[in-house]
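Lay summary. Proteins are chains of building blocks that fold into shapes, and those shapes determine what they do. In this project we predict the shape from the chain. Here is one chain we studied, written as its sequence of building blocks.
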Amino acid sequence: MGPAEAFFLRAFWDLDSERQVGMALGRIPRSKVFHYGSEAGLDSAMMDVLWRLIQRMDAAYLTWVQKEQEKKSKTSGKGIGNRVVHK
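And here is the predicted shape, written in a compact code that computers can read:
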């Protein structure tokens, strides 16, 4: 993995803690992504790249979480905690 890929992957997991969690697992807020990019010193072109990549990674992650919830629900009659994924 190159430095750019490592940066984007680290950004995703850093930003994962910024999503709203409660009864639903929400998306990573756009404002948090742009704040992260600003703190990292990204220019506007790279900020757009960061936003698009985080959106795609987040969508894939939320899809995975939802599938895991469905699997757990089928096998145990329960979801992952009380969380519901909203896309």
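What the prediction tells us: Residues 3-85 form one domain.
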